[in-house]
Amino acid sequence: MRSLFLALGLLAGVVHAEPVVLEELKLQAEYPVEGINGGNLSGLALCGEIMWAVSDRDDDRLYQLQLDGSLLRAEAETFVAPEPPESALPWGLRMRNWAAGLVRGGKLDFEGLSCDAQGNRYLVSETRAAVLQVSSNGNAQWLNLPSGLVRQARASGMLLHFNQGFEGIAIDPAGERLWLAAEQRRRGLTVMHRRGSGWRCTGGCVLTSESGEEASPEALGGHMAPRDFSGLAYFGEKLFTLERQAHRICRRTLGDGEMDICWSFAGEALAEQRRYARTYGMAEALWIDKDGAWIGVDNGGQTRADGESRPLVWRLAAPKGGWSRRP
């Protein structure tokens, strides 16, 4: 009986627990981006001293972002992507992806960007569930990913729905470990290790997957929406996920993808002058360094309250105690 009362007491404590208040990250700078085709910005990576961006509407170029006064000016670097490998996605999804590419442009739908210490850039194609490597000299080739990657991801509930595939990518500086983030319904993380000229999953491709909904920040009405990942970054032997709908960055362990601490950027992103008419998040790209975070905002052609209609890059200061602090 005593154990029953103890269990009930613990349950009551969970039910009545106060919601966790996340530390708010501070905005240091905001840069409108000029020169990206159609204004779509879906990935960011700081490779050495150069900031690169990718658009999900372009299949043949990366953009080098150059600081020009108070804005970032995009200069295109073109490449030729070989014919992509045969897709492991089912026929129905392939056909919907093909049709969407015809209508909006961007048949490969590059949704994330990362780079290694050798200057190679890595782009994840949502429509093909594949990764393109663009070397520092502009040569492009598709990675030889494990044949079981898509099968295992789908068995875990990921990659089942149109336009909800791999949305983020991260690679370690040595170019030996590669992670992909599936967007939503279910969202999840996968990992691969390089073996010679190919990649393999060691102990399985899937780190974690989860479904469910959560409330948006009160400034957006607190409506429920699917949990999502819209960006992924590697820093200091940790993974960092950009969680667009919740307006937060979360640190996760490499071994199992479990979350151990999160920080909010809702206070800055949802300030009155930065509001859009749409009630969902637009943060699409993430890069982490020791001093802070870079977040890319794909505004989808929308104009916000202060009249700004270009995509944006935000620079947020690192949290108190740094990114590696204990929870």
TrEMBL record:
It comes from the Bacteria. The keyword Glycosyltransferase does not apply. Residues 39-186 form the Phytase-like domain. InterPro entries: Phytase-like_dom (IPR027372). Residues 1-17 form the signal peptide. Keywords: Signal. This is Esterase-like activity of phytase family protein. It comes from Ectopseudomonas hydrolytica.
